[in-house]
Amino acid sequence: MSKIAMTTPLVEMDGDEMTRILWKMIKDELVCPYVDLKTEYYDLGLENRNATNDLVTKESAEATLKYGVAVKCATITPNAARVEEYNLKEMWKSPNGTIRAILDGTVFRTPIVVKGINPCVSNWEKPITLARHAYGDVYKNTEMKIDGPGKAELVFTAADGTETRSLIHEFKGAGVLQGMHNTIDSITSFAYACFNFALDTKQDLWFATKDTISKKYDHTFKDIFAEIYEAEYKEKFEEAGISYFYTLIDDAVARVMKEKGGFIWACKNYDGDVMSDMVSSAFGSLSMMTSVLVSPKGVFEYEAAHGTIQRHYYRYLKGEEAKSNPVASIFAWSGALRKRGELDNIPELAAFGDRLEKAVIDTIESGIMTADLSRMCTLENVTTVNTLDFFKAIKERI
Ligand code: NAP
Ligand code: MG
Q1: Could you tell me the distance, in angstroms and rounded to a whole number, from the CA of residue 332 to the centre of ligand 1?
Q2: What confidence tens digit (pLDDT) does each residue in 75-91 have?
Q3: pTM metric for this prediction
Q4: Is 48 exposed, middle or buried (0-12, 13-18, 19+ CB in 10 A)?
C-alpha cells in the first residue's frame, strides 16, 4: 500500500510526560504507516522550553500562522514544584496562554460520543460543542478588599485626559470590589471564530450572555454577534441549512438539558469554563473530548483537552506498561491531518482523518478499550487493554 503524500507540513508541537509517550506511539503506529508525514517539529517539552528560554513556544505559534494547521501535545504549565523538579531558570508561562495570545483564538471542545459510554443526560444523542471565549472578563480582573465605609467609583481616563466616572457603591462598611474588561477586537474575533466554526462543521450556533442585567458589558457581546451575523453570515448560514440564535444564559442552560445535542454553544470566558467542565463530565471522560483552537484568520491548532497525565507517567517510569487512553491525542492528529487535507486539496488525507476516527470509535464500540472507559462502559463484552493493544485493534480497523 502506498502512503498518502502531503504537500504542506503540519506544525507539530511535542509535549510532556505520558502524553509525550502517547504522542510518539500514535505517530509510529497510527500515522506514519499510512501517511508520508511531513511536519515542522517544535519540541515544547518543558526541558526544551527551558533551554530556549521559551522561545520555542513563540516560534511554534508563529509557524502556525505561517502554515495554518498545528497539532499540539499536552504540556506542563510549571508551578513551584515543577521549577524544582525540572530545575527551571524561570516559572515559564502556560504554553497554551502564549500560543493563544499569538493566534488570537477561541477554543472549541467537543465530546467524542461512542455507544456504551452514555451521557448522564439521557436525551443527549449528539455531542454539544462548547465555544469558549478565551480572553478577559474575570480572568484578567483587578480586585480589592475594603475595610470600611467609603465610595467606590469606576474611572476611565481617555487618551486626552478626559475623565468619565461612574459610582459603583457607597459602602457603609467593609466589602469587596472587582474591575474587569474586554475589548471590541477580542469580542469581534470571538464572534468570527464561532460563525466560521459553525459553517465549517455545519452545526447550529447558540450564544448566550446575561445582557438583561449587564446592559452595557454583556449587551456589547450580544450586539457584536448580531451585527456580524446580519452583515456577513445570515445568507451563508441559510445556504448551509444551519441557524444562529441568541438567548439569555439561564434560558440556554435550561434548553441545553432538553435538547438532543449536535450544536455549538458559544459562551463568555467564565460561562465557557464552567459549562465545558459540566458538558465533558456529563458525556463521560476528559480523554473523550476533542479540543481545537480556531483563529478568525483561518488558523487551526488541534490538541487533547486533558493534561500530561502525570500520575500515569510516574508509574510508566517505574516500568509499568502504558495504559492511558490515547483517544483525545489521536483525534488531535486526525483533526489536523483532515484539515491539512482540506486546505491542500488532498482528499485522501482528509479521508484518512475520518478513517482513523472511525477505526477508534469502532474499536471501542466492539468492546475493546482502556481501563478509564471500561470502568463505565455499559456494553456486554468489554475487554480492557493497554495502549499498545488498543492501537493494534485500531490498526485492524483502519
Ligand atoms: P491530567 O493530565 O488532565 O490528568 C488528571 C487525571 O485524569 C489523570 O491522573 C487520570 O486519572 C485522568 N486522565 C486524564 N487524561 C487521561 C487519559 N488520556 N487516559 C486516562 N486517564 C486520564 O491532569 P494532571 O495529571 O493533574 O496534570 C498534569 C499536567 O498537565 C500539569 O502539569 C498541567 O500543567 C498540565 N496540563 C496541560 C494541559 C494542556 O497542555 N492542554 C491541560 C491541562 C493540564 P487517574 O490517575 O485516576 O487514572
Ligand atoms: Mg475549568
Answers
A1: 16
A2: 999 999 999 999 999 99
A3: 0.86
A4: middle
